[in-house]
């Protein structure tokens, strides 16, 4: 088993006033040559956005973009849809940028901050037709069991959002003293696991809130919760860029 540990405080940080951004991987003005990607996972940003503020219209292409709101209200508009669309905690949003798309993302609240994860995954197909989707995932369906959020558009998994990469995004909420064994899809895959909240032990490593571990070259690994904990798993092919 191969592991890398990314403690929460080791992430890149940018304070833009209206935006407080933590970067697990090199992004914008923060560059760390040892933190460019984890396999096909290119970006994991942990953002807090002030009320009524956000990202103006900007382009993307050939990237799979997943957004997971954690608190507040995200409003999204893109060149595929003229109307603003709300994305709330409990929902997940995906956008395949493909041949090119323009979009805007703002905090839809006038008085509450918006917190979210934004994830970029390198696609396995170039210049696809852009597409957008979002879906609600009930909290009860991840209590002490794995809840699959996103899978490959080529897979037959029902109930998940689809992207152009052989990746699996999932969540689990573990009660204190509960354990869980994560089974990897193949020997060519690795898992980037982030503790959203709580404290867990993975491969003898204690991980607190927003700490992460990358696990590869193994068939499975065990997660032990030392307090009530929420985790995000991002399983991707271990590409070498």
Give the structure's gist in a few sentences.
With 241 residues, this protein is an all-beta fold. The protein is built from no helices and 22 strands.
What fraction of the residues are assigned to beta strands by DSSP?
over 45%
Class from secondary-structure proportions: mainly beta
Strand order, largest beta sheet: 1-20-17-22-15-13-14
Radius of gyration: 17 Å
Q: List the total number of helices.
A: 0
Number of domains: 1
Low-confidence stretches: none
Strand count, sense and barrel status of the largest sheet are: 7 strands, mixed
According to CATH, the homologous superfamily is Jelly Rolls
Kindly state the number of beta strands: 22
The helix content is under 10%
Average the pLDDT over all residues and give the rounded result.
Answer: 96
Second CATH tier, the architecture = Sandwich
How many angstroms separate the termini? 21 Å
- Using the alpha-carbon principal axes, give the shape: globular
Family: Belongs to the pirin family.
Binding site for Fe cation: 58, 60, 103, 105
Keywords: Iron, Metal-binding
Protein name: Pirin family protein
Q: Which features would summarize this protein structure in a list?
A:
Jelly Rolls, globular, seven-stranded antiparallel beta sheet, mainly beta, 241 residues
Task: Describe the protein.
By secondary structure, the chain is mainly beta. The chain has a single domain (2-237), classed as Jelly Rolls (Sandwich), CATH 2.60.120.10. The chain has no helices and 22 strands. The protein has strands at residues 2-6, 12-15, 19-23, 41-49, 54-60, 64-71, 74-78, 81-87, 91-96, 101-107, 114-121, 131-136, 147-152, 161-163, 168-174, 179-183, 189-197, 200-202, 205-207, 212-216, 220-225, 229-237. The chain has a 7-stranded mixed beta sheet, with no helix packed on it. The chain has a 7-stranded antiparallel beta sheet with strand order 2-3-4-11-6-9-12, with no helix packed on it. The protein has a 4-stranded antiparallel beta sheet with strand order 5-10-7-8, with no helix packed on it. Belongs to the pirin family. Residues 150-236 form the Quercetin 2,3-dioxygenase C-terminal cupin domain.
């Amino acid at each position: 088993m191969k592991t890398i540990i990314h403690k929460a405080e080791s992430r890149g940080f940018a304070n833009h006033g209206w935006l407080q951004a933590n970067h697990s991987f090199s992004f914008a003005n923060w560059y760390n040559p040892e933190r460019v990607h984890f396999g096909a996972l290119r970006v994991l940003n942990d953002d807090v956005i002030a009320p009524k503020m956000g990202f103006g219209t900007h382009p993307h292409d050939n990237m799979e973009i997943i957004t997971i709101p954690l608190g507040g209200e995200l409003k999204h508009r893109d060149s595929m849809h003229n109307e603003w669309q709300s994305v709330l905690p409990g929902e997940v949003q995906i956008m395949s940028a493909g041949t090119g798309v323009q979009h805007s993302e703002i905090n839809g609240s006038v008085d509450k901050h918006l917190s979210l994860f934004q994830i970029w995954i390198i696609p396995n197909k170039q210049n696809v037709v852009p597409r957008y989707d979002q879906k609600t995932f009930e909290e009860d369906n991840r209590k002490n069991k794995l809840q699959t959020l996103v899978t490959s558009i080529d897979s037959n998994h029902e109930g998940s959002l689809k992207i152009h990469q052989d990746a699996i995004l999932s969540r689990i909420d573990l009660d204190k003293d509960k354990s869980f064994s994560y089974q990897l899809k193949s020997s060519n895959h690795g898992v980037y696991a982030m503790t959203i909240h709580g404290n867990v032990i993975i491969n003898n490593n204690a991980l607190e809130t927003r700490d992460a571990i990358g696990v590869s070259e193994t068939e499975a690994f065990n997660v032990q919760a030392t307090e009530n904990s929420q985790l995000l798993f991002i399983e991707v092919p271990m590409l070498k860029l």
